[in-house]
Amino acid sequence: MSSRWKLIDQPIGKDGILRACAWGGAEAYIPTPFKVNHAPCLTELNNGDLLAVWFAGYTEEGRRDIHIVMSRLLAGEERWSEPVKVSDDDTRSEQNPVLFQTAEGKLLLLYTAQETHEMSREEFKRLHPGKTFTRQETSVIRCRTSEDNGETWTPSETWFNNPGSFCRAPIFPLTDGSWLFPMWYSVSDGQTEYGSDYSVVQHSCDQGATWREYPVPGSRGRVHASIVGQEGDKLLAFFRSRAADRIYISRSPDAGRTWSEPERTPLPNNNASIRAIRLQSGAIAVIYNHASGGDDPQATVWPMTRYPVTIAISEDEGATWPFRRHLETGDNYCGEANERLNSRYEYPWITQSRDGLIHAAFAYGRRQGIKHLIVSENWVKGT
């Protein structure tokens, strides 16, 4: 696999150039002028280009300067482009972008847009008792579309305007041509600083013109659902857990109309984003931080640990995960007193290109940039 890229034996540069690594994969830092870079999404377009979108700005998540940006790796090329803004509401914080391209080539960009906070946490809590500092309960989900692979975009439209609407996974196309869109509602409960949330799955038979909502029962604190197809109408969904205990799984026997209550898998979760996909081999791959911070499914826990970045592979529909490989181990400071010294490698994303290679991306360090890695399924399995 490494023959396509130039092998390097020095630290990778932040120039967007893909270089082969001694361990057999390839990696690049996607160039960015922004101080904050978070929640990447990768997708391969119909023309072979690889697109990356994430949210970026100069202050912090939740502020009005946070917008969606996009970078492109042209098919056959080795350098990521400088990022460009693809959202433009300066009155809201725009976050959690996901991409979906139809078979006909229409490209959809969906993302969240929420009210901002422009003051310290302490001042906000004093002036707005009972409201969450994150303002996620004010979020809506918007969409922009492109007919030219993301070169130009239509004006944004609000697709889901119920307050608290949030997303982190793309549209999942069903075999009958209809779409599923997993999302969740973030609500202010008046008790906790971060509020509460629960998951639903939206279903559209007319390419997003109208939607019907199906709840995921018992999904309080189970968010960021990644849908994976099975035989016939059967589906799986893998969830982040606010309890920071385990990744959870739910099952649908009828193409997403009903779902089982999410149950624990063996994979740990640290109350951070995950992504699951079906590989071309038929196996399921999940990318996540291999760490946990609690064991009470009803609790809400926010551990600081967001490393290592790990890919796990299951060959029995998620029952067991015998193959696990770390992509990024972090700074390796040990002990509770040194935990604050470790950087965070957050919100990993995974996709597989048509040539069979696995592409991963995550917010690198302290959200200083986005790192892109390319590996093979055999490398993850150690074969």
**Strand residue percentage:** 35-45%
Summed over residues and divided by their number, the pLDDT gives a mean of 93
What gross morphology would you assign? globular
**Global structural class:** mainly beta
Widest β-sheet, arrangement of strands: 1-2-26-25-24
Number of helices: 2
Gyration radius (Cα, Å) is: 20 Å
Could you list the spans in which at least 5 consecutive residues all have pLDDT below 50? none
Distance between the termini: 14 Å
The description of the largest β-sheet is: 5 strands, antiparallel
| Assembly state | single chain
Report on the structure:
There is one protein chain. The protein is globular and about 55 Å long. With 383 residues, the protein is mostly beta strands. The model has no long low-confidence stretch (mean pLDDT 93). The longest helix has 7 residues, at 121-127. The protein is 3% helix and 41% strand. The strands form six sheets. A five-stranded antiparallel beta sheet has the order 1-2-26-25-24. It is built from two helices and 26 strands. Strand 14 (196-204) and strand 15 form a beta hairpin.
